[in-house]
């Protein structure tokens, strides 16, 4: 070996091991040894080759003087001390001087490493971190370029230890280590959802700090991250021939191919598996010393080809360190072996399987299996059965198999047609026609599966897969109904957060076929999302008596009717799932229907079993789709389950479901990052479940400060700013929903000069908004409340009774229950109303809101305040009844005489 090769190897060794190595390779050549030791001292390299990312073969450093160091000022950051060094960057503690003073971590290109490719990789890391927002991923604060032209970025300063060191220092048990590990998985899952592969997961890149006494892992150093689908930098990043990125001890076999072109998210699953392996056994699968002494191509061969020992087998090789390893896990070696044996070992070996197709498909999948083990549930990591293998093949190749089915069916139909044409002249044409009919039936069934699969992807938030499948169907010779394809495309746009574009496609669908079940069902779903109950009711009227035929129509039907016909939906989806067990949307919809049945019949025997069946559906959906939409629905269900268990004094169940809800909520990110949508409401509901009222009040303030338009002008009403409220109503008048009209009526009630003017003005708006439909619709619970605010409970009762007599288009049984109370708001009806709501925050919010409104209409202001107070404690932030209950409560608190037009019963 020449001096350069010896230097490169020695630089990768810990200082205490370099002397032995140089003794072996330099022999008695003291001059060669002196030169190499001089280079090593100058380089100051202290990290092991196995503990730093591998560099490109043949790469050299142009050693340049260090121009930035402690005391240097980079922009508004003063460098204080160097705390780390990666493959390409130096990391410093820095003090930010403005606009706030704080300590941060500043990472900058190493001197001599500012080649075009390295700078491109560095910029990729900077952009990768900027894309992500997760409590277990280090946050980026700033980025820029030094005066010498080197890129840098600024991130939060993590004062923590590598996860393995932390676990050993705290002597965490195996179960505690497994629980901590799941947080790391959720962070990696978040990165994957943002299109980023880390490619260098190892203990030094997972630091654990403590917040309020709780361990908080933080994944750092996306320096070798690979973009899956997002363009991270304008400069080209080329992982050249014979180069590897990552750290050998933790890198996957596909990373060790000396080419990075075939690396995907499952490479990170492998590295997570190695990290878990080390957390359990104290050592990674391969021996450090052996890899240290091997040449790079041999290291890569070992990683690619050799089998990994099981964790128990690795424990048997620890020798003198075995006692320390077991003591760090608060057990003895024999007990440690028993703890790791079985499910834990299966989980680890599945994660580090050489065949990536046998690994967990997602980081969440790995975390979920760990959580199953911790909950004493059956894990997924079992020796694969034939059925399992077939299911996985289909799961990995949904689009391909869907395409194949379409093409096969089209080919079959075409061949049958040619065959029939050729044989029509023979006597057995009838028999051949029957064969063609059977082929046509098969093709129809395949088409049903294809369209159902597209809708399944859309409903679970996998919009990209849905668009690919839709394009395949549209470009095939299968002859799909174009109105159905337009309806499916509308649903895809809805779940891509573009409901207005969705309506454009749905209008095309219903114009093309005025009787399109899919088109009108999808229109109902989209208009419900927009809050346009007028159009929603019209759409529901067109499909209310239609029975779905195909799988796609059944999915549409079940999404429309899950709350009003939960038993029917349960049975229908059970049939669908017999033939399509991989449709996550069917599992999710059935789970929601089952939870509605639980809320309707919570006091009957079998509720726990029904909850468990529902949660099993949500778990299956979560395994089949990692989209936020799916996790949010799972979180709602877990909260409802915990509310039930707590009310029934099932403390163990309540804790179990609350802990699971916590885990899902963490994967959705901090509660204050978004203030709209179901995800936000689910996370605030979890705060209420945990009785964290201080946090709820903080979030509510954030809602009011950031986006008053999201609470329908309630904050303006609460503060009595009527001129601004009128401007707000005028501004949103064209939104196409009923809500501006309701807010306008509240405005008119508060500003009218006389009672006669008040009633006249509101009746005019009311009739044009609510009086134009002959059907009972979801908006009528608000319609009655308008009369309650006028102090006219008689008119509210009459309106509720009229609504209940109309043909029923109300899509939720609970909303009809609300109207029944408004039609007869007696003390006994009030007690039954609260009892029917059960322990569920979803229903207690609206129950207390209606009771408060009835009390207000009757001049019982204190009772109204008592019930308005309650609705803020259920965490359903950003809901109409929460927002306006808050607004009315604020007016009552500030002015005991408000509303002036209603006599004060208490004063009399």
TrEMBL record:
Secretion signal span: none
The entry's keywords: ATP-binding, Kinase, Membrane, Nucleotide-binding, TPR repeat, Transferase, Transmembrane, Transmembrane helix
Transmembrane spans: 400-422
Residues involved in ATP binding: 107
EC number, as in UniProt: 2.7.11.1
PROSITE patterns: PROTEIN_KINASE_ATP (PS00107), PROTEIN_KINASE_DOM (PS50011), PROTEIN_KINASE_ST (PS00108), TPR (PS50005)
UniProt domain Protein kinase: residue ranges: 77-374
Gene Ontology MF terms in the entry: ATP binding; protein serine/threonine kinase activity
Gene3D superfamilies in the cross-refs: Phosphorylase Kinase, domain 1, Tetratricopeptide repeat domain, Transferase(Phosphotransferase) domain 1
TPR repeat spans: 483-516
Source organism superkingdom: Bacteria
Pfam families: Pkinase
Protein name from the UniProt record: Serine/threonine-protein kinase PrkC
């Amino acid at each position: 070996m020449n001096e350069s090769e010896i230097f490169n190897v020695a630089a990768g060794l810990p200082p205490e091991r370099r002397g032995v190595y140089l003794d072996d390779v330099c022999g008695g050549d003291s001059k060669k040894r002196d030169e190499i030791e001089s280079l090593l001292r100058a380089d100051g390299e202290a990290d092991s080759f196995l503990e730093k990312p591998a560099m490109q073969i043949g790469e050299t450093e142009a050693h340049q003087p260090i121009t930035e160091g402690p005391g240097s000022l980079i922009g508004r950051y003063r460098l204080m001390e160097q705390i780390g060094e990666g493959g390409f960057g130096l990391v410093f503690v820095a003090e930010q001087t403005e606009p706030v003073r704080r300590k941060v971590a500043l990472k900058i290109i190493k001197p001599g490493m500012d080649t075009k490719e390295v700078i491109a990789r560095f910029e990729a890391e900077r952009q990768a971190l900027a894309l992500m927002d997760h409590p277990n991923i280090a946050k980026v604060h700033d980025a820029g370029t030094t005066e010498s032209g080197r890129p840098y970025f600024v991130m939060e300063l993590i004062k923590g230890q590598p996860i393995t060191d932390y676990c050993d220092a705290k002597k965490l048990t195996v179960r505690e280590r497994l629980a901590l590990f799941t947080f790391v998985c959720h962070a990696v899952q978040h990165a994957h959802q943002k299109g980023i592969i880390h490619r260098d997961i190892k203990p030094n890149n997972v630091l654990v700090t403590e917040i309020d006494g709780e361990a908080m892992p933080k994944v750092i150093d996306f320096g070798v991250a690979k973009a899956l689908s997002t363009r991270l930098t304008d400069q080209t990043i080329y992982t050249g021939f014979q180069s590897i990125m990552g750290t050998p001890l933790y890198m996957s076999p596909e990373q060790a191919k000396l080419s990075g072109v075939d690396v995907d998210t499952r490479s990170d699953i492998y590295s997570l598996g190695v990290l878990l392996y080390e957390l359990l056994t104290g050592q990674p699968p391969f021996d450090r010393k052996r890899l240290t002494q091997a040449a790079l191509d041999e290291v890569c061969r070992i990683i690619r080809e050799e089998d990994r020992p099981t964790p128990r087998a690795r424990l048997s090789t620890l020798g003198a360190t075995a006692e320390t390893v077991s003591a760090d896990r608060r057990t003895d070696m024999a007990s440690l072996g028993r703890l790791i044996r079985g499910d834990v070992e299966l989980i680890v070996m599945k994660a580090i399987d050489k065949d990536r197709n046998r690994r967990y498909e997602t980081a969440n999948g790995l975390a979920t299996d760990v959580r199953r083990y911790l909950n004493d549930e059956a894990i997924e990591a079992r020796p694969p059965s034939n059925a399992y293998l077939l299911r996985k093949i289909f799961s990995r190749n949904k689009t391909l198999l869907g395409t194949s089915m379409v093409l096969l069916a089209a080919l079959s139909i075409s061949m049958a047609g040619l065959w029939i044409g050729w044989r029509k002249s023979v006597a057995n044409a009838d028999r051949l026609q029957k064969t063609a009919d059977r082929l046509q039936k098969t093709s129809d069934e395949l088409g049903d599966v294809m369209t159902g699969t597209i809708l399944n992807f859309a409903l679970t938030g996998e919009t990209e897969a849905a668009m690919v499948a839709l394009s395949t169907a549209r470009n095939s010779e299968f002859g799909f109904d174009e109105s159905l394809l337009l309806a499916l495309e509308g649903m895809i746009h809805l779940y891509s957060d573009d409901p207005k574009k969705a309506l454009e496609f749905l209008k095309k669908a219903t114009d093309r076929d005025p009787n399109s079940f899919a088109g009108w069902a999808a229109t109902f779903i989209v208009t419900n999302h927009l809050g346009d109950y007028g159009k929603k009711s019209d759409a529901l009227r067109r499909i209310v008596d239609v029975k779905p035929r195909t799988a796609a129509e059944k999915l549409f039907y079940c999404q429309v009717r899950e709350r009003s016909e939960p038993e029917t939906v349960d049975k229908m989806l059970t049939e669908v799932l017999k033939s399509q067990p991989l449709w996550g949307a069917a599992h999710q919809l059935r789970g929601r229907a089952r939870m509605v049945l639980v809320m309707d019949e919570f006091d009957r025997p079998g509720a726990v079993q029904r909850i468990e069946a529902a949660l099993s559906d949500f778990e299956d959906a979560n395994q089949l789709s990692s989209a936020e939409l799916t996790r949010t629905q799972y979180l709602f269900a877990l909260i409802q389950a915990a509310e039930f268990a707590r009310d029934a004094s099932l403390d163990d169940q309540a804790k179990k479901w609350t802990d699971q809800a916590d885990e899902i909520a963490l994967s959705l990110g901090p509660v204050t990052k978004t203030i709209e949508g179901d995800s936000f409401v689910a996370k605030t509901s979890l705060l209420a479940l945990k009785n964290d009222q201080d946090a709820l009040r903080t979030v509510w303030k954030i809602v009011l400060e950031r986006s008053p338009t999201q609470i329908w002008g309630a904050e303006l009403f609460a503060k009595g700013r009527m001129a601004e409220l009128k401007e707000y109503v005028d501004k949103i008048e064209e939104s196409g929903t009923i809500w501006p009209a309701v807010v306008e009526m509240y405005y008119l009630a508060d500003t009218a000069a006389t009672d006669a003017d008040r009633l006249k003005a509101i009746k005019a708006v009311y009739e044009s908004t609510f009086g134009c439909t002959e059907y009972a619709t979801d908006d009528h619970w608000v319609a009655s409340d308008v009369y309650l605010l006028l102090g006219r409970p008689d008119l509210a009762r009459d309106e509720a009774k009229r609504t209940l007599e109309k043909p029923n288009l109300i899509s939720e049984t609970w909303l009809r229950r609300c109207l029944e109370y408004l039609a007869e708001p007696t003390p006994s009806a009030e007690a039954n109303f609260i009892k029917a709501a059960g322990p569920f925050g979803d229903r207690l919010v609206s129950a207390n809101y209606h009771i408060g409104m009835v009390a207000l209409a009757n001049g019982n202001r204190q009772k109204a305040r008592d019930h308005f107070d309650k609705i803020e404690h259920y965490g359903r932030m950003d809901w109409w009844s929460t927002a306006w209950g808050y607004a009315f409560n604020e007016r009552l608190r500030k002015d005991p005489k408000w509303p002036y037009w209603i006599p004060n019963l208490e004063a009399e």
